[in-house]
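Priority: medium. Attachment 1 of 2:
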């Protein structure tokens, strides 16, 4: 059986190296997400599965401007010829993860039950910027009414949950 995860990882690594050399991340991201959207359309999936040649022509018709770049053109047809098109979601996932690591990008998502004042947002940002001084931080503040009180912070894959609901769950489970 083919190990799709490892192949997707290898393809993503190759894309990353080329993107870093060509310095065209946004263009690459646009192509990848366009391909992802195409892969979700059942009729297009059907064409891909049944007739690769027809699918290739369809890609040319749909995205001629994006295929002006030789790298993207070769990449798209590599996906088609190696039967990797339907695994574009894995490739994108790995590509984004590797790009963030390489560029030292960290996404900090903060969920609260109410809106945080601008002053508190600035203080929170300063706190995390001190802790992660060698990284580029991207802050996202969101409201989650289910929290009732407290907050949740996601730093890439790490979760810090200081919400009332989580405290109740922890206390309830520890008494059993």
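Attachment 2 of 2:
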């Amino acid at each position: 059986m083919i190990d799709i995860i490892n192949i997707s990882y290898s393809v993503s690594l190759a894309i990353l190296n080329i993107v870093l050399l060509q310095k065209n991340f946004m263009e690459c991201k646009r192509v990848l997400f366009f391909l992802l959207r195409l892969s979700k359309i059942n009729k297009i999936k059907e064409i891909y599965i049944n007739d690769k040649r027809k699918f290739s022509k369809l890609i040319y018709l749909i995205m001629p401007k994006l295929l002006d770049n030789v790298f993207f053109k070769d990449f798209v047809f590599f996906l088609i010829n190696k039967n990797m098109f339907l695994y574009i979601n894995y490739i994108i996932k790995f590509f984004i993860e590797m790009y963030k690591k390489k560029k030292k990008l960290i996404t900090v998502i903060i969920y609260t039950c109410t809106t945080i004042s601008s002053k508190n947002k600035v203080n929170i940002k300063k706190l995390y910027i001190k802790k992660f001084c060698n990284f580029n931080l991207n802050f996202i503040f969101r409201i989650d009414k289910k929290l009732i009180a407290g907050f949740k912070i996601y730093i890439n894959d790490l979760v810090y949950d200081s919400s009332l609901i989580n405290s109740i769950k922890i206390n309830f489970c520890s008494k059993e």
